[in-house]
Amino acid sequence: MTSETGLDPNTKAILAAATKRILLGVDAASVKVLDVGCGEGRLLAALHSRGVRHLAGLGWDIAVPPLALAFKKIDLSQAGWAAALEGRRYDWVASTEVIEHLVNPFQYLSEMRRIVGEDGRLLLTFPNVHNLRSMVGYLLAGRFSGFFGPNFNENHPLHDQHIFIPNMHLVRYFLKLTGFSVEEIIWVNGSYRLTGQTTLLVARPCNPIVLP
Questions:
Q1: pTM for this one?
Q2: Confidence class of residue 175 from pLDDT cuts 50, 70 and 90?
Q3: Domain ranges across the chain
Q4: 204: which strand partners?
Q5: Is 131 exposed, middle or buried (0-12, 13-18, 19+ CB in 10 A)?
Q6: Which one, of 105, 141, 143, 150, lies nearest residue 124 by Cα?
Q7: pLDDT of residue 116
Q8: Cα(207)–Cα(7) distance, integer angstroms
Q9: Of 52, 152, 161, 201, which has the fewest CB atoms closer than 10 Å, so is most exposed?
Q10: What is the DSSP string of 139-205?
Q11: Strands (E), 25-162
Q12: For the domain bounded by 9-130+166-205, which CATH number is listed?
């Protein structure tokens, strides 16, 4: 498994905050956790080291701890990917720094709703476009911090681009439409909305809003 050596401070802060929130008030030995878009499996490894044994990772090219389930070659940009889990549901479904890379975040959240247990929780992290740095960047250059920069070109892989701008009002709206209610927001790598580099959001399942 990949260690935390060489990680930037924000990535370390996201990993620590997500691990802490998932383990808050739960029995580590029995809680079931799925990491969607888990990549090298750092969050799963951190949870495993703290006693969590019911772990699973999902994504395209991924790594998971020993004995964890691995759902590989899953394209999160395609509809229907939740079917690969064959009806499994989890107490916690985490997805860190993923939604901003997707061309259809609404479809992604719809799939997530199928795999979060009825008493479970969804944990998302994404860049905080409401902080001071991002707002100044938009005011002066017409783009939010971390979006549409030098890497945004046709020679850079689409899946590695920041495509969706995660405005909190829009994220909340998509969550309501897909059957989630926001329960908690934590600012990571900064204590407030204007200073936090990353948004950590926890949502619980609810009845989706039905549009007329």
A1: 0.92
A2: very high
A3: 9-130+166-205
A4: 181
A5: buried
A6: 105
A7: 98
A8: 38
A9: 152
A10: HHHSS-TTSSSTT-STTS-GGGS--S---HHHHHHHHHHHTEEEEEEEEESSSSTTT-SEEEEEEEE
A11: 32-36, 54-58, 69-71, 90-96, 116-127
A12: 3.40.50.150
